[in-house]
Amino acid sequence: MKAISAKQYGDPDVLEYGDRPDPKVAPDSVLIRVKAAGVNPVDWKILAGYLDPMVDTYFPLVPGWDVAGVVEALGADVPEYEVGDEVIGYVRKDGIQHGTYAELVAAPVRTLARKPAALDWQQAAGLPLAGLTAYQAIRRVGTAAGETALVHAAAGGVGSLAVQILVAQGVRVIGTASERNHDFLRSLGAEPVTYGEGLADRVRALAPEGVDVALDFVGGGVVDVSQELLKDRSRVASIADGEVTKKGGHLVWVRPDSAGLTALGELADAGKLTVHVDAVFLLSEAAEAFRRSQEGRTRGKIVLEVS
């Protein structure tokens, strides 16, 4: 099969496009013919060695955790799927080596769900990691219809999905973003505010009594700002602030979750959630996709088109 791989840690220039052995399929896994693979910031952070202290990494490394594709073969004990089924997955395993930037991926069924019919292959590939991150962060803080949520980096891959999930729940959403993304946020049902100095005052102008929950998808001290605005300082979740638990909030490290993926797919098929694809690259252009992600100005998702 063709795949992207790296023989060592480094910048995007160490990525190579070429032949790799077809993956082995464990009894509880399926072999997926990949249609598209989502690109996430964690992918280039793994390549840079940032996760080395906490996760075993093996070379040559095929990056990628997001996948959308068609089941091509079944493991010995997989009653959940049949050959030809269309699936999506957040294919994170215990170690890092056999990722989704490839024509074929072996994925444990615990990481998969059926592809939402309402999403095309590129949109479907952008849903799993970002969608589950948003979904699990929202569940961690708890939300109810009529409440107000503050979402930081609301136009990004995770933030834009969190906005839609919250709106579907009947939650009022105030989202931070650069001015160029304000109309985009309005189209998702959020009330945009510009991030940066004076943010607390801008949020109070919209919500004088404060907010009920806050979601930090960017880091950079926004947990502190959020807690100034929260009615209950514990109802903040962050994927980027390692000190958030010491501040009384919640740190979220997204986990594979078939039920959560299924719930996101149901929202998509009900017309309540979509995935904005900011840029599409060929599999062979993965290094360029990494550089685009590193710029940190993506609206929605970056995706690799595989087949």
TrEMBL record:
InterPro entries: ADH-like_N, ER, GroES-like_sf, NAD(P)-bd_dom_sf, YIM1/Zinc_Alcohol_DH_Fams
Pfam families the record matches: ADH_N, ADH_zinc_N_2
Transmembrane segments: none
Residue stretches making up the Enoyl reductase (ER) domain: 10-304
GO-annotated molecular function: oxidoreductase activity
Domain of life of the organism encoding this protein: Bacteria
Signal peptide bounds: none
Alphabetical list of PANTHER family matching this protein: ALCOHOL DEHYDROGENASE RELATED, RETICULON-4-INTERACTING PROTEIN 1, MITOCHONDRIAL
Protein name: Alcohol dehydrogenase
